[in-house]
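Sample A.
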Amino acid sequence: MKTAVITGVSSGIGFELAKALLKKNFNVYGISRRTPKELFDYENFNFLCIDLNNFENLTNKISEFLIKKFNITKIDYLFLNAGEFNKRIAPISDTPISEYDYLMRVNVWSYKIILDVLLRASVLLDTVIFSSSISSLRARKGMGAYAISKAALNMMAKLYALEHPEVFFSVLGLCNVNTFVADNILNLPLLGDFNELAELRDRASIPGYLTSPFDRAEQILLLLESDLKKKSTSGEFIEIRQLLEINRITE
């Protein structure tokens, strides 16, 4: 059986990816703070409950769960999907460094810890999928710590790709998906003059503008199954909509 490891498995895209892969008879190892009770209906689902911001225990817990308990030697898909958004939408100068530190820990450094545990244990990684965002490239006032964390994630992925050419690192901009992060972007108070975000909110109110987590998960799996490695470059950011268009043209 193939194996997938998914962070942020309790909701959104992570939850939908897990459910779809379990139906395809993957062994799925889920990691999140909250427990996805519905997934326990599948006998090939295993779960680790942990806060990715808890660095004191993260390395040991990941090692105990994936290496010592289950003796995983190969992972077909590692979805580094968990993520957080800003606590508020405010100017950079009005945002304390603690908020930047928190998002870097959850959105970037927790991914590094998980990757390093697996690489040091000589686990064979086929494809690592980072959940990134166009915010990493397109600067919008108000996106602050979230945008900075995603830009750092992109660079980290490039460096891992250079140092580990045996692994394929897919860095996906998942675009407008109706998730917890999108909910915060669209509903947190705008503590400043953020015209672009106000316009984004207007567009998001149009029916069909936001993609459901179920549909986005299905699209990710479609791309993986249609030889994603030939349609993108390891370690390089690419928007999923661009990949879907490439896939449509080449199929």
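Sample B, a different protein:
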Amino acid sequence: MAFPKLRRIDAPAAFPVELSDVKAHLRVLHDDEDALITSYMAAVVAELDGMDGELFRCLAPQRWEQAATIGACHTALPLGPVDIESVTVEYVDDAGLRVSLASEAFEVVAAQGVDDVYVRWLSGAPTGRQAFIAYDAGSEDIDPAIKAAIFLIVEDLYNGRDAAPARERTIASLLKAFKRDIVVD
């Protein structure tokens, strides 16, 4: 059974911003366009969130699986922020079945905060085996700059205008600190 190197297991249950907050930003006092505004929110979040998102990070809680080969060094978990306590590892045994790896055979390390997390293989880990590392990423509380950028992009879509160059620079500036440049094989 082949898996991509990184895949989402569970999508976020909610948007990283509330519809009521977006409507307040837009100064919309009625519910007539909730479906339209929600579709804009979905489009903006899809553009920013997860493996294919512009920021290459998780904006709301979701579960991911990273394929790896158990080896002498470590395996990075590229999408953050990672809930370190949520990390589980399965490996493929001789019969081709996925089996849970004992927590004593690996260690989860946060190198420079929760955005730089990796799994270090310890003695007892079956070296050379295919492994699947599952973890929760994302947070209930996203940075205010990311929220502001989401509000501004939804506003541009809602108002039907092309984003002015100044607006594009403002949004890019708000999001620059959060963009991760990670290459996933």
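Observation for Sample B: Residues 22 and 151 are 6 Å apart (CA to CA).
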